[in-house]
Design a protein that fits this description.
6 strands, Alpha-Beta Plaits, 4 helices, single chain, alpha+beta, two-stranded antiparallel ribbon
Length: about 120
């Protein structure tokens, strides 16, 4: 795997996404059935790509922003992350085509970016 590089995949989703609004409006039983289907599909995706997964990652919670004015509560579209290994950026991106995050769940997208070396390290 020496030719493999690391890529960070971030899962994005917003509450004002029309698909999220439709998801939230589903009857509870139907939403739970879709959640069960989505979780099974996510586990199947992990099983299929387990050789490429460097860090399974997971969902992320509430956000704090730290800057010149200190620490403040904020929000963003980040909902989770995974780290994968692939020979190229294109190959890493292809791992997420049809991912349950947006094909079953109402997530917006998955963005994939290379993890670059630290300059001077």
């Amino acid at each position: 795997m020496s030719d493999q590089k690391l890529f960070l995949a971030i899962f994005l989703g917003t509450r004002d996404n029309p698909r999220m609004k439709a998801w939230s409006a589903l009857p509870e039983a139907e939403r739970h059935a879709r959640e069960k289907e989505g979780i099974a599909a996510w586990h199947a995706w992990v099983e299929k790509h387990k050789a490429s997964i460097a860090d399974f990652g997971g969902p992320v919670g509430k956000t704090k922003s730290i800057g010149e004015k200190g620490v403040v509560d904020t929000s963003n579209a980040l909902s989770g992350f995974t780290v994968v290994r692939a020979a190229s950026h294109e190959e890493a991106a292809k791992l997420f085509e049809g991912h349950p995050h947006f094909s079953i769940f109402p997530g917006d997208s998955v963005e994939v970016m290379p993890v670059l070396p630290i300059p001077g390290a």
